[in-house]
């Protein structure tokens, strides 16, 4: 199994920045991609960004392109989400996800990001 622990959420004003971190442990050798999803209040969980193990390929939701950047440090088994120019609609619980080569998905418990207007 893979365990994921997020950190870095908090309260920020619109236009501000935050950096989320997610540390993976356990069977990390099986991880192929890591990513971030978010669940706004009263809404479904949605994809935000993902990155392959090598870091050579990234993917973003249209709503965050140009504002968010995903990166990873394999030596630390950590994935980051740098969030700039935050908007109130970015308010959500952000979840870290890992997807293994065997098709398994693992999730962290989430970290709350609140953007005030």
What does this molecule look like?
The protein has no helices and eleven strands. It has strands at about 1-5, 10-15, 20-25, 30-40, 45-50, 60, 70-75, 80-85, 90-100, 105, 110-115. The mean pLDDT is about 95.
Determine the number of helices (DSSP H or I, runs of at least 4 residues): 0
Structural class: mainly beta
How much beta, percentage-wise?
Answer: over 45%
Q: Main sheet?
A: 7 strands, mixed
Q: Helix and strand succession?
A: EEEEEEEEEEE
| Helix fraction bin | under 10%
Average of per-residue pLDDT values: 95
Number of strands: 11
Low-confidence regions: none
Radius of gyration computed on alpha carbons? 13 Å
Q: What is the molecular shape?
A: globular
| Distance between the first and last residues' Cα | 40 Å
């Amino acid at each position: 199994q893979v365990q994921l622990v997020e950190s870095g959420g908090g309260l920020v004003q619109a236009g501000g920045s935050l950096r989320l971190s997610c540390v993976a442990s356990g069977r990390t050798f099986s991880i192929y991609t890591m990513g971030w999803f978010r669940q706004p209040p009263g809404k479904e969980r949605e994809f935000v960004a993902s990155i392959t193990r090598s870091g050579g390929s990234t993917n973003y939701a249209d709503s965050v392109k140009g504002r968010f950047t995903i990166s990873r440090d394999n030596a630390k088994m950590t994935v980051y989400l740098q969030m700039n120019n935050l908007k109130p609609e970015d308010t959500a619980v952000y979840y870290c996800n890992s997807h293994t080569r065997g098709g398994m998905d693992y999730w962290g418990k989430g970290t709350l990001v609140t953007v005030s207007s």
